[in-house]
Amino acid sequence: MAYMRKRSQTQKQKREKPEYEQKLIDLRRVARVMAGGRRFSFRASLVIGNRKGDVGFASAKGVDTALAIEKAFKQARKHMMRVPLTKEGTIPHEVFAKHAGSQLLLKPARKGRGVMAGGPIRVICDLAGIQDITGKIVSRSTNKLNNALATMKALQKLNM
Q1: Rounded to two decimals, what is the model's pTM?
Q2: Among 51, 142, 150, 144, which Cα is nearest to 99's?
Q3: Which CATH number does the domain housing residue 55 bear?
Q4: How does pLDDT run across 81-96, given as a tens digit for each residue?
Q5: Which of 76, 61, 57 is nearest to 123 (CA)?
Q6: Claim to verify: residue 37 and residue 92 sit in the same structural domain
Q7: 107 and 153 part of one domain
Q8: How far is residue 148 from each of residues 10, 80, 98, 155, measured CA to CA in Å?
Q9: Cα–Cα dist 104/148, whole Å
Q10: What is the spatial distance between Cα 8 and Cα 41, in angstroms, rounded to a whole number?
């Protein structure tokens, strides 16, 4: 017969939900060349949001992955921005943005259409709380970092 331990009252209680949800967009091992050889570190690109209009994005480097993710989370919290949303849960108007080689277009969508976008645009819009939007990467850039930064620029251009 297997021994089963009863859970205490504190373990039964649900854990508090964190203030912001986070999603890792990119995790890479990067190297810098020194006199004795290569030194490796990790770069984490992270999006945080509360699905109520607040969203932040940051990229940070660390000696190991956990440290890089933690640093990116702290930086993203510092660079939070408020996204203006309509009553229907979409953006108020069409917006175009460009960052480095990445160009993208965000359009409001009818209620019930959902987030019709791919890659970093989808993640950022989802964590920002946008329910209906159409996003299109116009350039041929597949760089996740530039696409994410272009999305943040586009959301900053929005006004009610």
Answers
A1: 0.87
A2: 150
A3: 3.30.160.20
A4: 999 999 999 999 999 9
A5: 57
A6: no
A7: yes
A8: 40, 14, 11, 11
A9: 10
A10: 41
